[in-house]
Write a structure and sequence with these properties.
single chain; alpha+beta; Pdz3 Domain; 2-enoyl-CoA Hydratase, Chain A, domain 1; seven-stranded antiparallel beta sheet; six-stranded mixed beta sheet; 21% strand
Length: 503
């Protein structure tokens, strides 16, 4: 094959990365229309089908790219000389495709941007399959942060959440095999799998001294992007809308649910984007148009030249009721745009914890051979012009959940019993305390009081009363805690939001 023809994907990629200031990008989609770059989630799905925030409309071939940027003749000659020298002189015959793909990956690595990645044919295919809202996997968004595959957010009610995975958990091993040195896409392919199969993840969690393992049973998950409820706050009726991702149909679903709540009559609205990893820029803008006063900014985009484009609301009139937004460390990207817009342009309260902090936008480009380049194309700023990348959006009122919301599952492959001292014992003590038992202490020492609390718990859940935490007791503790976490009565952030409407 002609070297220049083989180099075409790299030449195109180099042109995109090194193009002149006046470069232009044409996105070709069905019908020849020009597509808007999408605000993608801050992460790669943990399975090839978990990309709940990706552009669900790009089931057609990904965008092709034209650019006015060109490599100078001397640089292209240098590149070709290096390629030819390696092909002809290296001690072993290199694989041409691996050499070229390595060159593209190498260029992206120099950008020091975890969101700009190269996807070979297999990874690109998996990526496109991931756009289906129904998938098989563990249900978590992951990203490469400081060289570590890191959980951005487990999807609500997913196997990942049930198993106790949390934002910022770092995955060290998959089924006992280290993933150090793998690309994000390579790690994703190891984590994904068929419904009913189990994957064992070795986790390092900030604030914990020891690594631990979590078994996750993969399942089929259908993501409902918007759900609604009604709550009472004193004598007021409060609507509640949870947005789980910003996908193609999310804005329409949001409007349908909001219209229904308003027809029933509400005195306030809670919008919950906790654990929402993000999604389409267009989706969050459309929702912003329903909530933000006319001509107020929803988001601002900044290009490579520093030029800023403000996206203004087109809403006629203002909502007559107050809005409270719920956020946490798993709220990212498009979730942060909405929370910041409601806070800065709408003047509404935001309750919870500081968000993830992802302030860049990616677009996927077809390199002509079924491989793709996902590239950061601009930064986004909040409605008030603030850069939240790696910083996050702060709540107007910080509220932490009860301690047991943040606990790791108890690992009891070796039973935990009287006189032991470990982090696993401490987790069990905090779980027992959260469930209403009195372990006597929560410092990790397995005391007689802790033993009695374990015995009481075992009797209540109809296990053998031994006072020893074995695997069955550990699983029962986890299940009881999951039920506690899902009970709205224990949700301090939601309850504080409702209290604000009574003031």
């Amino acid at each position: 094959m002609n070297v220049e023809k083989k180099l075409l994907p790299i030449i195109v990629a180099v042109s995109v990365l090194l193009g002149a200031a006046g470069m232009f990008i044409t996105l070709q989609v069905t019908g020849g229309e020009t597509a808007e770059p999408v605000m993608q989630e801050p992460a790669q799905p943990e399975t090839g089908s978990d990309a709940v925030g990706e552009d669900a409309g790009e089931e057609e071939p990904s965008a092709a790219v034209e650019t006015s940027g060109k490599l100078s003749e001397d640089k292209m000659e240098k590149f070709q000389r290096a390629y030819a020298t390696i092909m002809e002189a290296y001690v072993e015959a290199p694989d041409e495709d691996e050499l070229l793909e390595g060159a593209i990956s190498g260029m992206l690595e120099t950008l020091d941007d975890p969101y700009s990645v190269y996807m070979d044919e297999e990874s690109a295919r998996e990526f496109m399959e991931s756009l289906d809202p129904s998938f098989e996997g563990i249900g978590a968004e992951v990203n490469m942060i400081n060289g570590q595959v890191t959980i951005v957010s487990p999807i609500r009610d997913s196997p990942a959440e049930d198993a106790g995975l949390r934002p910022n958990d770092m995955i060290l091993e998959v089924d006992g095999e280290s993933i150090e040195g793998l690309t994000l896409n390579e790690a994703v392919l190891k984590i994904r799998g068929e419904k009913g199969s189990t994957v064992t993840l070795t986790i390092e969690r900030p604030g914990m001294s020891d690594e631990f393992q979590i078994d996750v049973i993969r399942d089929e998950i259908t993501v409902e992007t918007v759900t609604s409820e009604r709550y009472e706050a004193g004598d007021k009726q409060i609507g509640y809308l949870e947005i789980r991702s910003f996908a193609q149909d999310t804005a329409n679903r949001f409007k349908e649910e909001l219209d229904e709540l308003e027809e029933q009559g509400i005195d306030g609205l809670v919008i919950d984007v906790r654990g929402n990893p993000g999604g389409l820029l267009q989706s969050v803008e459309e929702i912003g148009n329903l909530l933000i006063p006319k001509d107020e900014p929803i988001v601002q985009r900044q290009d490579r030249n520093g030029d800023i484009l403000r996206h203004l609301s087109t809403q006629e009139g203002e909502k007559e009721y107050p809005i409270v937004t719920l956020i946490d460390e798993g709220s990212a990207s498009a979730s942060e745009i909405l929370a910041a817009a409601l806070k800065e342009s709408g003047g509404h309260e935001v309750v919870g914890e500081t968000t993830f902090g992802k302030g860049t936008v990616q677009q996927t480009f077809d390199l002509g051979d079924e491989s793709e380049l996902k590239l950061t194309v601009f930064k986004w700023l909040t409605a008030g012009g603030n850069d939240i990348n790696e910083v996050g959006v702060d709540p107007t009122e910080e509220v932490r959940q009860p301690e047991y919301f943040y606990l790791s599952p108890v690992q009891a492959e070796e039973p935990l019993e009287f006189d032991e001292n470990s982090e696993q014992v401490r987790n069990a003590q905090l779980m027992l305390e959260g469930l209403g038992y009195d372990p006597g202490r929560t410092d990790g020492y397995f005391s007689r009081d802790t033993e009695e609390a374990v015995e009481q718990f075992q009797a209540d859940v109809e296990l053998d009363v031994t006072g020893v935490i074995d695997e069955d007791t550990a699983l029962a503790l986890r299940d009881e805690i999951v039920d506690m976490v899902r009970d709205p009565e224990n949700d301090r952030q939601l309850n504080r939001a409702l209290e604000l409407f009574e003031q």
